[in-house]
Design a protein that fits this description.
The structure is a homodimer of 243-residue chains.
Chain A (H helix, E strand, L loop, with lengths): L7 H15 L6 E2 L2 H8 L3 H13 L3 E4 L3 E4 L12 E2 L2 H7 L4 E11 L3 H6 L8 E10 L2 E11 L16 H9 L5 E10 L2 H6 L8 E10 L5 E9 L6 E6 L3
Antiparallel strand pairs in A: 1-3, 2-3, 5-6, 6-7, 7-10, 8-9, 9-10
Chain A binds a DNA duplex (19 and 19 nucleotides) through α3.
DNA sequence: CAGTGGTCTAGACCACGGG
DNA sequence: CCGTGGTCTAGACCACTGG
């Protein structure tokens, strides 16, 4: 029934997700793990793996002794912070038409903080990429990305900077991407930001992400700052008791 | 070597965490899963379970074919948003002395939004609990919690409101607590908030959490709003590629 | 090539929930 | 009490990394 790659568990997860959307389970109750395992012809562990992922996303609630149930609340969760997803997808998940506008791509001298965060010398330069993301033709995210020029290994064009950085890095820098260390910072929009994001007069505060990206050798390879219209792009997440 | 409860995997995780702090592994490399399984006399799956949790916390990095390594960067992560932890612990993790000040406990009429979020009728009241958390005697978090009075089943005193709500609920409301659905919202501090949190003149923006808590039957049972001094209590997290 | 982590299986026992 | 999810085991094969 299933092939390998992506993993069986991932396929089972996808299958169940679809079934949850399509099917009306009795009282939102999902068949037991044993039954699912037999139906899908995989081991119970694999089913459990898939269900665990769905539970992490809040799509499903498990109760020992009772069963596994669909969580109808969590259609409200549009973004899962722990996962990196392209901003276009985030905008799509909010039901809007995404757009990307590449504002600029240029080599610059990093400021002191940025140089320190990326372990750069005084003479090292960075490639700075400015983008503006729109949702239904309204600007919602403004981001600046800094990549040390010394790690860029392949020739690139402006257009190559449009996709997410973590695709640029493997492609043009021969760098793996492992994870972001992200700070969530609130701020009062500066006049410059107000103009770029077309903020209405009443909208004063913005949310920003300040992120340092690391490769699999745990070396910092990219810095990114993103400013969000939190009123248009809700940042919502699920929090659980001590896992 | 280990007892059961908490789970073996949890104990192994704890054991490894200690060992990471105490031991200097060669080039930060942790023994292989097979070796650990033999040493600790548990199955490799259990070791993997423990390592997966450490990896989620960013404490460890795994590389297929190469090994598992300590991540020395992630001492910087003070808060894991996906997990609910008492604010006192969060403050402790920042290296500060935590304090709780119970500002008020009183029955009130919920506003329209709150009533809708908690599925309340027009006549239902809520117990509102105001707290102020300090770090090294400096106020850093101000929180208000709303619990529908109709679910309160046991007599309580003011002091019972000091611990986290998700302890109050099982104890006095016979309610299980399953998860929070949390919105992250930036805002410009109002004069009232400025006074409560003793904000310095330059500090304009605050971070707030607007959370609805659900029980295991997926019914909303509590609303909480928290305002953070993000400059004193850094909100930092690890983001990975699509799990 | 040997050794690592990644995935999957089949089977066992436990703890809990609801009838 | 039975059926559910929670935990653990032993063993297998794969994919990848590094020397």
């Amino acid at each position: 029934m299933f092939k390998r790659s992506p993993s069986l568990a991932e396929q089972v997860k996808f299958h169940l997700k679809q079934r949850i959307l399509d099917t009306d389970f009795d009282k939102d109750r999902i068949p037991s793990e044993t039954v699912l395992a037999q139906e899908l012809n995989v081991s119970r562990n694999t089913v459990r793996d898939a269900l665990s992922r769905l539970e992490m996303e809040g799509i499903v609630i498990r109760k020992q002794g009772a069963g596994t149930f669909v969580n109808r609340n969590v259609r409200l969760v549009k973004t899962r912070l722990e996962e990196i997803i392209p901003y276009e997808e985030m905008i799509l998940a909010h039901g809007c038409k995404p757009a990307v506008d590449l504002l600029s791509v240029k080599k610059t001298q990093p400021d002191e903080q940025c140089a320190a965060q990326l372990n750069l010398n005084a003479t090292d330069e960075v490639l700075s990429i400015e983008k503006l993301f729109g949702a239904d033709d309204q600007p919602v995210i403004y981001s600046i990305t800094f990549i040390p020029t010394k790690i860029i290994a392949e020739p690139y064009t402006k257009e190559d900077a449009i996709p997410p950085v973590y695709q640029f890095l493997p492609q043009f820098c021969r760098q793996s991407f492992a994870y972001y260390l992200s700070d969530i910072v609130p701020l009062v929009a500066t006049p410059g930001l107000r103009q770029i994001l077309h903020l209405p007069p009443r909208k004063l505060a913005l949310l920003s992400f300040e992120e340092i990206g690391f490769n699999r050798d745990n070396e910092p390879i990219v810095k990114a700052i993103s400013y969000f219209r939190d009123d248009l792009l809700r940042l919502r997440l699920i929090r659980r008791d001590t896992g």
